Amino acid sequence: PNNQTRQRIERSLGSGVIVSADGYIITNNHVISGADEINIVLLDGRETKAKIIGVDAATDLAVLKVELNDLPNVELTNRQMPHVGDVVLAIGNPFGVGQTVTQGIVSATGRSQLGISTFENFIQTDAAINPGNSGGALINAFGELIGINSAIFSQTGGSVGIGFAIPVDLASQVMDSIIQNGLVIRGWVGVELQDISPE
């Protein structure tokens, strides 16, 4: 019949980083937020469904898990802060064209007050990051993971050389807490701070 209700299906696209051989994946919370089903497609063509282990909206991070054998993975071992001028590569799936690597440098570190998330300490890079790159890896010239690509500054929707990544130390802490507790537990101080004038 003509009045039959049609089911509306919305699809979203993003990237992720496999951080352990047993299938844990870090991505952005905004990549998977509101999803009824999450499909993971690897570069080798394998496809599987992912389970959400937990999310942390305050840092825009999420942890997923897949059950596959022989998973390629990057280890969260890098503990050296990147420096301005370091060569970096952004890996992801921009606009759904397939796995893509772009090159740039670290433009700045410690970027905050951008209005992107509650806790901000971003690495800024001019490596091209576009829609679909969110949740993907930012690595240094030694192949070490240094950040999770998360946002771009753009008035057109495309890359203008200002991208932001969550540092690996923060992503690692959030992931460990989510795996252990299902969420990130934080203490809060019941005060608000503000600048005051000499008067």
Structure notes:
With 199 residues, the protein is mainly beta. 9% of the residues lie in helices and 32% in strands. It contains 2 helices and 12 strands. It has helices at residues 29-32, 168-181, and strands at residues 17-18, 24-28, 39-41, 47-49, 51-56, 61-65, 87-92, 100-111, 122-125, 137-140, 145-152, 163-167. The protein has a 6-stranded antiparallel beta barrel with strand order 7-8-9-12-11-10. It has a 4-stranded antiparallel sheet with strand order 1-2-6-5. Strands 3-4 form a two-stranded antiparallel sheet. Strand 5 (51-56) and strand 6 form a beta hairpin. The longest helix is centred in the C-terminal third of the chain and has 14 residues, at 168-181. The mean pLDDT is 87.
Structural class: mainly beta
Tell me the overall shape: globular
Strand element count: 12
User: What does the oligomeric state look like here?
Assistant: single chain
Percent helix range: under 10%
Q: How large is the count of helical segments?
A: 2
Strand line-up in the sheet with most strands: 7-8-9-12-11-10
Provide the succession of SSEs: EEHEEEEEEEEEEH
Overall pLDDT score = 87
The portion of residues forming beta strands comes to: 25-35%
The major sheet is characterized as: 6 strands, antiparallel, barrel
Distance between the termini: 73 Å
Instruction: Supply Rg.
Output: 18 Å
Which consecutive residue ranges, at least 5 long each, have pLDDT under 50? none
